[in-house]
Amino acid sequence: MDLAHLNRRGLVLVGCGRMGGALLQGWLARGLAPGAVHVIDPNAPAWVAERGVSVNGALPADPAVLVLAVKPQMMGDVLAGLGAASGALVVSVAAGVTLAAYGRAFPGAAVVRAMPNTPAAIGQGITAIVGNAQADAAALDLAQSLMEAVGRVVRLGDESQMDAVTAVSGSGPAYVFHLIETLAAAGAAEGLPADLALDLASATVAGAGALAMQEGGDPARLREAVTSPAGTTAAGLSQLMDPETGLGPLIARTVAAAAARGRELGQ
Ligand SMILES: NC(=O)C1=CN([C@@H]2O[C@H](COP(=O)(O)OP(=O)(O)OC[C@H]3O[C@@H](n4cnc5c(N)ncnc54)[C@H](OP(=O)(O)O)[C@@H]3O)[C@@H](O)[C@H]2O)C=CC1
Ligand SMILES: O=C(O)[C@@H]1CCC=N1
């Protein structure tokens, strides 16, 4: 992060809920001065003001960055109430809302859409970013550095990929948490104490995810390494990989529904 630039001109964060709050924590941990941050949120958590961040106070005249982290359904009202972005880089994490919509609200402004996910709260998010025509290399670098405060960043070649990204990695933690819930419940149904089943399920998802990241490449190879011929895994996978009732078609429908909702939110 270009801390000198941000600390001198200031950063405005509109919406300090789960995602805005995680970002703010990441920025402060990276050394952004609390006095340089101006939060607008009628319901900001108490820790924000306690850290010395201005909450619903006067805004700087020419902030370096305006970050939008309100629900997409609120975005129209928020944009109408904000006025001009002056020379600020606009960064929005909202699902669905398009670069064109921000361009109409802030004519001529550099705008970057970013799609993070909730592991950002522990610095392990993955964020995809894409900018409008006005977002030059410096603007994209600044947006990337802001999002790298909470994890890794990938750049998209085209905004049209954003709804799919939202459906895979933005919403994805919820799918994984549901996998943990259902794996634990199934373990309990097989006779395990519920807390042990949950511990086993959570640790298995964490470990398998870490192994997949470390090994890279095709996860099918890792799956095959677990699967002994005629063993327990093969018996389980015969259900999970059923071409009609298994996880493949279910996840395909899940991601398609989430992406379609992203497109709807952008209307
Ligand atoms: N949660 C997630 O996993 C992800 C969310 N996102 C995106 O992040 C954005 C925020 O989501 P999330 O953090 O989950 O939502 P939250 O509801 O947790 O946070 C939104 C915050 O904005 C506040 N707010 C409401 N109206 C206004 C307003 N007019 N001006 C300023 N602040 C306002 C809300 O207050 P109040 O509670 O009183 O309404 C709340 O504190 C969404 O656009 C979402 O698409 C992106 C990736 C992942
Ligand atoms: O559910 C949502 O709409 C937001 C976007 C991605 C994750 N949460």
Automatic annotation (TrEMBL):
SUPFAM superfamilies: 6-phosphogluconate dehydrogenase C-terminal domain-like, NAD(P)-binding Rossmann-fold domains
Binding positions (NADPH): 56
Domain of life the protein comes from: Bacteria
One Pfam family per UniProt: F420_oxidored
Main localization category: cytoplasm
Keywords from the named record: Amino-acid biosynthesis, Cytoplasm, Membrane, NADP, Oxidoreductase, Proline biosynthesis, Transmembrane, Transmembrane helix
Coiled-coil zones: none
BP terms from Gene Ontology: L-proline biosynthetic process
Single GO term (MF): pyrroline-5-carboxylate reductase activity
Gene3D superfamilies: NAD(P)-binding Rossmann-like Domain, ProC C-terminal domain-like
Residue ranges constituting the Pyrroline-5-carboxylate reductase catalytic N-terminal domain according to the UniProt record: 13-96
InterPro entries in the record: 6-PGluconate_DH-like_C_sf, NAD(P)-bd_dom_sf, P5C_Rdtase_cat_N, P5CR_dimer, Pyrroline-COOH_reductase
Entry's Gene Ontology cellular component terms: cytoplasm
Involved pathway(s): Amino-acid biosynthesis; L-proline biosynthesis; L-proline from L-glutamate 5-semialdehyde: step 1/1
Signal peptide span: none
EC primary class: oxidoreductase
Protein location: Cytoplasm
Span of domain Pyrroline-5-carboxylate reductase dimerisation: 159-265
Keyword hit for Methyltransferase: no
Reactions mediated catalytically: L-proline + NAD(+) = (S)-1-pyrroline-5-carboxylate + NADH + 2 H(+); L-proline + NADP(+) = (S)-1-pyrroline-5-carboxylate + NADPH + 2 H(+)
Entry binding sites for NADP(+): 69-72
Enzyme Commission number(s) from the entry: 1.5.1.2
Transmembrane portions of the chain: 78-102
Entry-linked HAMAP family: P5C_reductase (MF_01925)
Role of this protein: Catalyzes the reduction of 1-pyrroline-5-carboxylate (PCA) to L-proline.
UniProt-recorded name of the protein: Pyrroline-5-carboxylate reductase
Gene source species: Paracoccus alkenifer
Lineage of the species this protein comes from: Bacteria, Pseudomonadati, Pseudomonadota, Alphaproteobacteria, Rhodobacterales
Gene it is expressed from: proC
